[in-house]
């Protein structure tokens, strides 16, 4: 199997950290409540708050470039188990789009955890394009819009669900997973389907 894997919100618990820090930044630093009610479940801070350009730049500089996050429980164990089965595993991430420091932090975290990928594709805002080139069987991502695009293009998407986000509608090609144990089970089920063909 050829598997694609996002980093933030999937391998790293950084999305929960970003969301918490965004709330604190809005309330404690900016001292206001600029959360846009209809965008409460929006994953990106650019659309979730009515911050101006300077406020957003400050948040990105001060928060998105910190390393106050960890590897998700059992991520390494599952990735190692999949590699032992002969799977090719790529990391496909938008990380690095704001600064090269983002990639340095991620490389350090992966190295410390002993997590290895066949290749890491940094700065990937259009993950579907790279997924098609790599001929992915499965993509694991925390963003509903990304998972939906994969599913609509025939690539099985595992939506790594984070509390507070909109719940996607599951289908044959889009499944919700809550932890790395469920990721492993879902990939094994995909492997069985593929072997029956």
In short:
The chain has about 200 residues and is of the alpha/beta class.
What labels would you give this structure?
197 residues; alpha/beta; 6-stranded parallel beta sheet; 8 helices; 6 strands; 46% helix; 13% strand
Description:
This protein has eight helices and six strands. The protein is of the alpha/beta class. The chain has helices spanning 14-29, 45-48, 53-64, 75-84, 100-113, 127-134, 144-152, 180-196; strands at residues 2-5, 88-92, 119-121, 138-141, 156-160, 174-177. It is 46% helix and 13% strand.
Describe the secondary-structure layout.
Elements: E1 2-5, H1 14-29, H2 45-48, H3 53-64, H4 75-84, E2 88-92, H5 100-113, E3 119-121, H6 127-134, E4 138-141, H7 144-152, E5 156-160, E6 174-177, H8 180-196
| Total beta strand runs | 6
Query: How would a crystallographer describe the biggest sheet?
Result: 6 strands, parallel
Oligomer: single chain
Overall radius of gyration: 17 Å
Number of helical elements: 8
Would you identify the regions where 5 or more consecutive residues have pLDDT less than 50?
none
Strand content: 5-15%
Q: State mean pLDDT (0 to 100 scale).
A: 90
Shape: globular
* Secondary-structure element string: EHHHHEHEHEHEEH
Lateral strand order in the biggest sheet: 3-2-1-4-5-6
The helix content is 40-55%
Structural class: alpha/beta
């Amino acid at each position: 199997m050829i598997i694609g894997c996002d980093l933030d919100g999937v391998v790293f618990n950084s999305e929960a950290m970003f969301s918490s820090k965004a709330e604190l930044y809005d309330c404690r630093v900016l001292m206001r409540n600029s959360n846009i009610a209809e965008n409460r479940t929006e994953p990106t801070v650019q659309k979730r708050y009515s911050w101006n350009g300077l406020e957003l730049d400050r948040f990105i500089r001060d928060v998105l470039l910190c390393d106050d996050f960890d590897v998700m429980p059992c991520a390494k164990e599952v990735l190692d188990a999949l590699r032992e089965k002969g799977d090719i595993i790529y990391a496909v991430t938008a990380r690095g789009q704001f600064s090269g420091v983002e990639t340095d932090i991620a490389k350090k975290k992966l190295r410390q955890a002993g997590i290895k990928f066949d290749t890491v594709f940094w700065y990937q805002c259009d993950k579907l394009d790279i997924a098609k080139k790599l001929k992915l069987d499965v993509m694991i991502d925390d963003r509903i819009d990304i998972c939906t695009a994969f599913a609509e293009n025939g690539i099985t998407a595992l939506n790594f669900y984070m509390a507070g986000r909109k719940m996607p509608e599951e289908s044959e090609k889009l499944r919700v997973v809550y932890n790395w144990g469920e990721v492993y089970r879902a990939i094994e089920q995909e492997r069985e389907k593929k072997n029956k063909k």
